[in-house]
Write a structure and sequence with these properties.
about 180 residues; alpha/beta; 5-stranded mixed beta sheet; 5 helices; about 15% strand; flat
Length: about 180
């Protein structure tokens, strides 16, 4: 006899469609996403990432400790699966909160400008210590949340090439290495 997974009768999928206002705007507001600061908005809003990074590292150390045991017991695998779900749900909630606060800080007539971070993991070079942080960075999910929340409010989203964005003056467009003294400035 074979057992097949069955759908629970309590599962229900509902699709809703809502009208979205036409995006209009003339004032650009940039959002820089990163590891040290999850998001920095050009209107002055900053979301520090230190506590978030510490919690993600805590989850990683827990996984490493459980995987290091080398047991094939079902309990360890179940615990690992539960931990991964817990971390994923927590990070998704953080991204929702950050996206919501970013979009709420925008005024009518603003245009949201994001860096196009597609293939960022392949483009950057990182030390061995930083690789796990970079590869577990949920920037794409944050981008999707920001985009759909902004479009719901009629705020257009524009993507720009990330090259030299931190060195380029937002007012005049002049690009020079001396425009950025340090990561903090």
């Amino acid at each position: 006899l074979h057992s097949f997974p069955t759908r629970r009768s309590s599962d229900l999928n509902i699709v809703l469609s809502t009208p979205v206002p036409d995006p209009k705007g003339e004032r650009p507001v940039g959002v820089d996403r990163g590891l040290k600061n999850i998001a920095v908005v050009s209107n002055g809003l900053v979301f520090p990432g230190g506590a978030i990074m510490a919690r993600r590292r805590h989850f990683r150390k827990l996984r490493q400790a459980l995987q290091r045991k080398g047991t094939r017991k079902r309990g360890v695998r179940r615990l690992l699966k539960r931990l991964s779900g817990k971390e994923r749900r927590w990070m998704s909630n953080v991204n929702h909160v950050v996206a919501k606060r970013i979009v709420e800080s925008l005024k009518p007539g603003d245009i949201l400008v994001l860096e196009d971070l597609k293939y960022i993991r392949e483009r950057i070079r990182a030390s061995k210590k930083q690789r796990a942080d970079i590869h577990s960075w949920a920037f794409g999910e944050l981008q999707r949340f920001i985009e759909y929340k902004a479009l719901e409010r009629g705020i257009p989203v524009v993507y720009v090439d990330p090259r030299n964005t931190s060195r380029t003056c937002p007012r005049c467009g002049h690009c020079e290495k001396n425009n950025r003294f340090s990561q903090a400035h």
